Amino acid sequence: xxxxxxxxxxxxxxxxxxxxxxxxxxxxxxxxxxxxxxxxxxxxxxxxxxxxxxxxxxxxxxxxxxxxxxxxxxxxxxxxxxxxxxxxxxxxxxxxxxxxxxxxxxxxxxxxxxxxxxxxxxxxxxxxxxxxxxxxxxxxxxxxxxxxxxxxxxxxxxxxxxxxxxxxxxxxxxxxxxxxxxxxxxxxxxxxxxxxxxxxxxxxxxxxxxxxxxxxxxxxxxxxxxxxxxxxxxxxxxxxxxxxxxxxxxxxxxxxxxxxxxxxxxxxxxxxxxxxxxxxxxxxxxxxxxxxxxxxxxxxxxxxxxxxxxxxxxxxxxxxxxxxxxxxxxxxxxxxxxxxxxxxxxxxxxxxxxxxxxxxxxxxxxxxxxxxxxxxxxxxxxxxxxxxxxxxxxxxxxxxxxxxxxxxxxxxxxxxxxxxxxxxxxxxxxxxxxxxxx
Length: 438
Fold this sequence. Notes:
The chain is α/β, with parallel strands linked by helices. It has helices spanning 17-31, 55-58, 65-80, 99-109, 143-149, 197-208, 216-223, 244-254, 267-273, 295-305, 317-323, 326-332, 348-353, 366-374, 388-400, 419-432, and strands at 7-11, 35-39, 85-89, 112-115, 130-133, 152-156, 177-180, 184-187, 190-193, 259-263, 282-285, 310-316, 338-343, 381-385, 406-411. It folds into 3 domains: 7-58, no CATH class; 65-223, 3-Layer(aba) Sandwich (Rossmann fold); 244-427, Rossmann fold (3-Layer(aba) Sandwich). The protein has a 7-stranded mixed sheet. A 6-stranded parallel sheet has the order 11-10-12-13-15-14, with helices on both faces.
């Protein structure tokens, strides 16, 4: 089965339509992946039998009771044997429906909890056990230190690939790691299938509820001065040349519990990950394939589904050029998406991984591009900021504008990027250049 989709069905007979459509919807809901339904045009208007009750589509089979009991027992024994456990939250936690269960687990254990890069916002950042992002040298301050000090990692719904492990340099694995996913849970040499992740986490939480906390990692984290950095929103020279740091401060200043921030592949990842989130704020990044350009159409679809949220996109100039036309759809639907477009004259993330002339791009008049999408009736706005003061004014305009998208072109020097990108890029470049396996 294609890892990017649940399944595909082809309907060439009206008689088969109810069964196949229900099967596709049921599978998509269960797997949390797209399902493709192809309907032949010459049967699309044909009558078919009425479907059965919706419960047959929506109801999931229960966890296997014996397997669940055995898995909970194995995990509890593992954690009981450790003095310094930590919990690592992965990007499949939401698809597993286990976000609330992860909070209950953290409450019961009392240990340090970190999120992987692509799981930003999947665990509340105001929780007393939250320590930040674990991402090797790109981790939040002191988080990598506490993971190196830990003697056991409980990895929940994690995806480990070259990007998420910083070129395989931050890959928790071995006998000191439990991996629990929506499909399978692995403890030492044992694998457990047929159980739901929320049931598993609640079973472990129930076991440790009322017992002494396994809080050594959280105590040590505080002892060594760990803590998620919070950008101070201070007054700055309005005439000073715009910097990446000021863009970051501007973003931080408009994030509310009703905000969703999309971070495009590149330095936008690290800018978004530095943002402190109030409970309720969400972050969306794509780290499975490292697609560039994915975020513009993605936030368009998200804004259609959740227009009540403050939807903000941070995207680089090179990535934006791949899918810029989707801003026209935002204009058509009058979606007030706020776009911070970072114009640093090229593919900065690729420069850090493998530099060359192919990382240079033709500059655009980005504000004029947005204005062009307006045609006769659109209300999109294109703004440009080269100083701190210009950005501050542009943000005010964006917050007040409700009739369509606002793109703010933020012009900064090419080498003005986060330290995390530089370190991450070096490790990924090293992994890319390793000799092929014999």
